[in-house]
Amino acid sequence: MSAKIRFGILSTANIGLKKVIPAMQQGQRTTVAAIASRDLNRASQAATALDIPTAYGSYEELLADPNIDAIYNPLPNPLHVPWTIKAAEAGKHVLCEKPISMTVAEAKTLLDVRARTGVKICEAFMIRSFPQWLRLRELLDEGCVGELRAVSGIFSYFNIKPENIRNRVETGGGGVYDIGCYLIHASRYAFRQEPTQVVALLDRDPEMGTDRLTSAILDFPAGQANIICSTQLIPYQRIHFLGTRGRIEIEIPVNAPTDRPTRLFIDSTGDLTGSGIITETFPAGDQYTMQGDAFAKAISDGTDVPVPLEDSIANMAVIEAIFRSAKSRQWEHPAR
């Protein structure tokens, strides 16, 4: 294996072209060696624009390339598991976009694939490799907020284009799969526990059928998380972590900017004027670069990936419970 992990990109999805590929090309441990599309011309155009050495006109050709160590899979949500399986069976490690699957049952199939093939499979929650989230973990472990009792998060954007993949039910669109998954993941990450029950309200777009506004309460043994996600509200994102002696607030928790520092606010005084808030600042950086390097390090060192399959399955169990609760109008138990 080369000094850097050689990635092949499975499709010309926008997130890859605009964010992940340029970021991974700057990585200390990653290089982008090839890109594939079902349309060779499209793959070639992307390869030329991004200075990628090789373009393939089928996903199968990419998986057969012996010079590729790992695959980045940003395909539509229903294709995440099928092509992750094919990549693993071809001996490639897989960094798969979130959500890793559409159901818990589907995600569980990857456990056998991982055991059988021996490859690394990681869900691409890029926040897990970013300094502000690593610092949050340190602060919580140090008891900065006392006993963590509540997490409150909001994540929204405005998109009403029917042709957009995020607004198509058949491709796993809607707020919960697209952005609510981050709030669920963040709550579980903070509590270091799994919620025992979930209750939710969900509003669907009358024409597109996708969930455009969802509110949920996650009941953990140590406390509660309340989350709101929407695809049809003014763009906003913020997460608060409140404990018995303090609180922590992440200003831009998910789409951390690359052109300016990010900030984390710590309040241990409870002064409502904000005079007691301490601000920690983190240098500008690209979380997709950090994600790629963290995954590549796990491959090279034979260590755990940032987000293992067991974590992905637990996150998907909460997503399923939210959808069930929205229908039953009752508390539902995540089934892992």
Can you characterise this structure?
By secondary structure, the chain is α/β, with parallel strands linked by helices. The protein contains 9 helices and 14 strands. The protein has helices spanning 14-24, 40-50, 59-63, 80-89, 104-117, 131-141, 175-191, 287-301, 309-328; strands at 5-10, 30-36, 54-56, 70-73, 93-96, 121-123, 148-158, 197-204, 211-219, 224-230, 232-243, 247-250, 262-267, 277-282. The protein has an 8-stranded mixed beta sheet with strand order 8-9-10-7-11-12-13-14, with helices on one face. The chain has a 6-stranded parallel beta sheet with strand order 3-2-1-4-5-6, sandwiched between helices. Helix 7 (175-191) crosses helix 9. The longest helix has 20 residues, at 309-328. The radius of gyration is 20 Å and the shape is globular. 47% of the residues are buried.
Write the layout of secondary structure elements.
Blueprint: E1 5-10, H1 14-24, E2 30-36, H2 40-50, E3 54-56, H3 59-63, E4 70-73, H4 80-89, E5 93-96, H5 104-117, E6 121-123, H6 131-141, E7 148-158, H7 175-191, E8 197-204, E9 211-219, E10 224-230, E11 232-243, E12 247-250, E13 262-267, E14 277-282, H8 287-301, H9 309-328
Parallel strand pairs: 1-2, 1-4, 2-3, 4-5, 5-6, 7-10
Antiparallel strand pairs: 7-11, 8-9, 9-10, 11-12, 12-13, 13-14
What can be said about this structure in brief?
The protein is α/β, with parallel strands linked by helices and 336 residues long. It has helices at residues 14-24, 40-50, 59-63, 80-89, 104-117, 131-141, 175-191, 287-301, 309-328, and strands at residues 5-10, 30-36, 54-56, 70-73, 93-96, 121-123, 148-158, 197-204, 211-219, 224-230, 232-243, 247-250, 262-267, 277-282.
